[in-house]
Specification:
mainly alpha; Serine Threonine Protein Phosphatase 5, Tetratricopeptide repeat; 2 domains
């Protein structure tokens, strides 16, 4: 079962101007996304796409002439990450927009995975990650899609980046997202035959959350199925 975290969406007026901090979503857009979240949680993934497609089309129209690199910021901390990265690299030709476009891309990708259209989901998730490269939730969802396609060489970097990004999150959200990323890494490492590394990652997940039953189950699987080491 994949984790679905409902984002906390602020109901302030929308802004598309570059400024210190993260632009906010409009109240209408917040309402749309709350409906989408309810559909995804309620097993109506296909229906959610009917709401998401017009939203995605709106963003495409609004930014069709924009030449700068676009990033979606969920909060002021994430907006600061883009500013810091821009200063460090000397690249200032970018614009931070509200999180709505990336959320819609992620949600459509999530919905398509849910209805088993994995190949169609990947471009939406890859674009969400490109526009929100520090968002652990999007990175893990992309890793999950790669896993479904058995593209292990792509899944592992996606989950690794998700784990790195999750480290900056606060409280229980950090536990949830870091645990998910580590479990994704561990599962992929098993498929790659890297049993010792997988075991270490699942142990990390269990240390993070001693009640992580999925990590416990995977460790039991490793114990039962890891190839026997040859005696020297």
């Amino acid at each position: 079962m994949r984790i679905l975290l409902a984002l906390l969406l602020a109901a302030a007026p929308a802004s598309t101007a570059m400024a210190q901090g993260a632009p906010q979503l409009s109240s209408d857009r917040v309402n749309d996304f709350q409906i989408v979240i309810g559909m995804l949680q309620g097993g109506k993934a296909a229906d959610s796409i009917d709401i998401l497609d017009p939203i995605l089309a709106d963003y495409e129209r609004n930014y069709v002439d924009e030449k700068r690199t676009l990033y979606c910021a969920e909060d002021d901390d994430e907006a600061q990450l883009y500013e810091d990265a821009g200063k460090a690299s000397g690249k200032t030709d970018y614009l931070v927009i509200d999180q709505g476009w990336c959320f819609a891309l992620w949600a459509k990708g999530y919905a398509l995975v849910d209805i088993h259209k994995i190949g169609e989901a990947v471009p939406y998730l890859e674009r969400a990650v490109a526009m929100a490269p520090y968002r652990a939730q999007y990175l893990s969802e992309l890793g999950n899609a790669y896993q479904e396609l058995k593209q292990w060489d792509k899944a592992l970097p996606a989950f690794t980046r998700a784990a790195e990004s999750a480290q900056r999150l606060p409280g229980q959200r950090r536990v949830n997202m870091l645990g998910r990323a580590w479990r994704g890494m561990g599962f992929t490492l098993i498929e790659l035959g890297r049993w010792d590394e997988a075991e270490a990652v699942f142990n990390q997940a269990l240390e993070l959350n001693p009640n992580d039953e999925k990590a416990k189950n995977e460790l039991a699987y490793i114990a039962q199925n890891r190839p026997k080491r040859r005696a020297k």
